[in-house]
Amino acid sequence: MPERPSWAAADVDLQRPNAARVYDYYLGGACNFATDREFAEKIAELVPEVGDAARLNRTFLRRVVKFLLTRGIRQFLDIGSGIPTVGNVHEIAQRAAPGSRVVYVDHDPVAVSHSELILRNNDRAGVVQGDLSEPDNVLNSAVVRDLLNFDEPIAVLMIAVLHFVPDELDPHSSVVRYLDAVAPGSYLAISHATPDPDPGRLTRAAELYRANNTPFVVRDRQQIAALLDSTVLVEPGVVYTPQWRPDSPDDVGDNPERSPFYVAVGRKP
Ligand SMILES: C[S@@+](CC[C@H](N)C(=O)[O-])C[C@H]1O[C@@H](n2cnc3c(N)ncnc32)[C@H](O)[C@@H]1O
Fold first, then answer.
1. Rounded-to-integer distance, Cα 92 and Cα 60, Å
2. pLDDT digit string (tens) for 42-51?
3. CA distance 106 to 89
4. What atom in ligand 1 is closest to the CA of residue 85?
5. 164 lines ligand 1 (CB under 6 A)
6. 131-148 pLDDT, tens per residue?
7. Which atom of ligand 1 is nearest to the CA of 81?
8. pLDDT tens digits for 259-268?
9. How far is the CA of 135 from the centre of ligand 1 (A)?
10. 0.85 cut: is pTM over it?
């Protein structure tokens, strides 16, 4: 049995791989255990580009927050926010616009305890332990109600999280519920794993997650676009991660599908 660090509460299972900690490992973080690293390596044998895809996903998050700031957004609800790492939403937003308010939501206790730690001196950012598929609990939580003003636009971020929500839980209805709650002019930004570049390999990777008790659903471009059907898509629409408003055309490269993730941003009319 691995030694339990202070950031892993007694109910955190150290023997079973966990999606937040596996992602932390891909990003070079230290909040993971041997079981997470072994599982991450198994996925990487099947999908060697997974580490790059995780890093590209973080660069998309940075680009999208900066883009939203240029559109006047000063409030962020980041659902499935993960274990904090370099370039968290509040750091990017509050550096550019110090009054920005950010609420992180994750169902994973390790992600939540680390977020609490880094936010303890920040009165404009907070964290909720909650589930994307329980929008009313998230939206009515004290932290959300204290920090966010629903009369003003809010950016709802669901970055690399919706593929953890199986069809039975109807992710589309959850997305719609969040969008119903926010003011016109609000935004939804998503990134989502897809089998499109190589269906066999990516579908097998999703099966590996499921075999480890972690729901994982890869969805094709049309299914991902449907998640944003109550918004007006921001250009360039639903594209592979490197193709979304790159800092430089060189960043796109010859094979943008090297990141098997689609990303998109939509505006609530
Ligand atoms: C791959 S990480 C993404 C972290 C961050 N959004 C990013 O893109 O860098 C996915 C996160 O979603 C969280 N998650 C998965 N399913 C969730 C759910 N139903 N509700 C809330 N969080 C969830 C996991 O615990 C994990 O921290």
1. 12
2. 999 999 999 9
3. 14
4. 9
5. yes
6. 999 999 999 999 999 999
7. 6
8. 999 999 999 9
9. 15
10. yes
Q: 19-267: which CATH architecture?
A: 3-Layer(aba) Sandwich (3.40)
Residues 135/107, Cβ–Cβ less than 8 Å: no
Q: Ligand 1: which atom is nearest the Cα of residue 78? A: 6
Please state the domain extents for the chain.
19-267
pLDDT band for position 13 (50/70/90)? confident
Q: For a pocket test of ligand 1, which of 22, 113, 161 has the largest count of ligand atoms closer than 8 A to its C-beta?
A: 161
Ligand 1 contact, 171 CB (< 6 A): no
Ligand 1 atom nearest 54 alpha carbon: 9
Contacts (Cβ under 8 Å, ≥6 apart) of 130 = 105, 106, 107, 137, 138, 141
Burial class (CB in 10 A: 0-12, 13-18, 19+), 80: buried
Ligand 1 centroid, distance to 164 Cα (angstroms) = 8
Task: For 51-70, write each residue's pLDDT tens digit.
Answer: 999 999 999 999 999 999 99
- N- to C-terminal Cα distance for the chain? 52
